[in-house]
From TrEMBL:
GO MF annotation list: RNA binding; RNA methyltransferase activity
Protein name: Methyltransferase domain-containing protein
InterPro entries the record matches: MeTrfase_RsmB-F_NOP2_cat, MeTrfase_RsmB-F_NOP2_dom, NusB-like_sf, NusB_RsmB_TIM44, RCMT, RsmB/NOL1/NOP2-like_CS, SAM-dependent_MTases_sf
Organism (species): Salinarimonas soli
Family listed: Belongs to the class I-like SAM-binding methyltransferase superfamily. RsmB/NOP family.
Keywords from the named record: Coiled coil, Methyltransferase, RNA-binding, S-adenosyl-L-methionine, Transferase
């Protein structure tokens, strides 16, 4: 019932999962299936809800737990490799075991059987935009062309691939890992495997990082020995890239818990960085040769991994976060060395307020900063990833599958500046 809890409290699935899993105490394999069901429930929430609405004479249940129960049952029937009878039986069993849902058991049984019988028709007639909630359809309809909106919706229905960033480029890692080298340099696994069992994990030869997430730190073009600030650094994917390039990195984040993961990552990779638990806005004056600001954002570029975000966030979150980004960006500029220091601002959002408009307003209010356009050659020659102003704008459908059967990448924005 993590899905119900997440919907009710508008808290991310990741945040409610740990506690829910501890309470349920499921064996690892069952927990993995439960998580796949919850993720699929969110990924296809619009399609599933519509299918249920059309098959419930009384309309959708107001009770979140009942709604979540039906969604998890239908997700298994429609989109997961679970036999229909097992999906129906386990969902009915959950209803029977719950005092408040007990009287719905017959209804659950009937509606899920009907969903199973009508599966092909449900899938064939599903609206291509059904899984994009209205607030995002409105935003993306304004920001992007109609064909792009459809491509985004389609990309978000796919599960994300697992990409790796090599600590050191080269070597025979693609063969050893059964991976394909993407044009941008990341490796993409062709099969889903236990990460810790893969060759090179213990020796710290690579780390998991989406192909798009690996681009912003590269745009900083750090050189060995440079002093670099990684602001909003945890859990540290970009810190690892900067440290692996030989920079003396100061990694800053206000979350001590998330920084623990960054420390563990540094340890496994045998890399070093100075780690500071602090609010970027409260950092004392000092300057760095290069600064990376990977600001907190609505994360609408990561819906393939975190489909819950689409159903839990709202316009108000974008406004609030964009305001925080503006303040963080000004602080990041102050920390950039005058006379040539570089600054890269990035977010994993598809919203212009958290990307293009943020960069435009920044340049307008900071005459001490100038833009350093990104060249397509810096992102593997993929021209579609760089806009006319020389900003990186990756979209989830823009990475071809390169023979892995798993296309796609996170949606990221990055702009590069130099301090005069
Ligand atoms: C997008 S995540 C960073 C991901 C990270 N750069 C990476 O590549 O693994 C944003 C981070 O910003 C941190 N954060 C949010 N507001 C902050 C602030 N005012 N000062 C410092 N860190 C902040 C959050 O704790 C979160 O870890």
């Amino acid at each position: 019932m993590a899905l119900a809890q997440s919907l009710k409290s508008r808290t991310s699935l990741d945040d409610v999962w740990e506690e829910a899993a501890r309470k349920a105490a499921l064996p690892a394999r069952d927990e993995a299936l439960a998580r796949a069901i919850a993720i699929t429930g969110f990924r296809r929430f619009g399609t599933i809800r519509e299918a249920l609405r059309e098959r419930l004479t009384q309309g959708l249940p107001a009770d979140e737990r009942m709604m979540a129960l039906l969604v998890t049952g239908a997700a298994q029937i429609l989109f997961l490799d679970v036999p229909d009878h097992a999906a129906v039986a386990t969902t009915v069993e959950v209803a029977r075991g719950d005092r408040l849902l007990l009287h719905y058991a017959g209804l659950v049984n009937a509606v899920l059987r009907r969903v199973a019988r009508e599966r092909d028709a449900i899938i064939a007639s599903a609206d291509p935009l059904a899984d994009v909630p209205p607030w995002l359809q409105a935003r993306w309809g304004e920001a992007y062309a109609e064909a792009t909106l459809l491509a985004l919706a389609n990309a978000h229905r796919q599960e994300a691939a697992v990409d790796l960033t090599l600590r050191q480029e080269g070597g025979d890692w693609p063969e050893r890992l059964g991976a394909v080298r993407l044009p941008t340099g990341s490796l993409r696994l062709t099969e889903r495997m236990g990460i810790a069992d893969l060759p090179g994990f213990d020796e710290g030869a690579w780390w998991v990082q989406d192909a798009a997430a690996a681009l912003p730190a590269r745009l900083l073009r750090v050189e060995a020995g440079e002093r670099v600030a990684d602001l909003c650094a945890a859990p540290g994917g970009k810190t690892l890239q900067l440290a692996a390039a030989g920079a003396r990195v100061v990694a800053v984040d206000r979350s001590a818990k998330r920084l623990e993961r960054l420390q563990a990552n540094l340890k496994r990779l045998r890399l070093e960085a100075e780690v500071r638990v602090t609010d970027v806005l409260a950092m004392p004056d000092e300057t760095f040769d290069a600064v990376l600001l990977d600001a907190p954002c609505s994360a609408t570029g990561t819906l393939r991994r975190h489909p819950d975000v689409a159903w839990l966030k709202s316009d108000a979150d974008v406004t609030r976060l964009a305001d925080l980004q503006t303040r963080l960006l000004d602080r990041a500029a102050d920390l950039t060395r005058p006379g040539g220091g570089r600054l890269v601002f990035c977010t994993c959002s598809l919203e212009p307020e958290e990307g293009e408009r943020q960069a435009e307003a920044f340049l307008a209010r900071r005459p001490d900063m100038e833009r350093v356009p990104v060249e397509p050659a810096e992102v593997g020659g993929l021209e579609a990833l760089v806009n006319a102003r020389g900003e990186l704008r990756t979209l989830p459908h823009l990475m071809p599958d390169m023979g892995t059967g798993r296309p796609g990448m996170d949606g990221f924005f990055a702009a590069r500046f130099r301090r005069r």
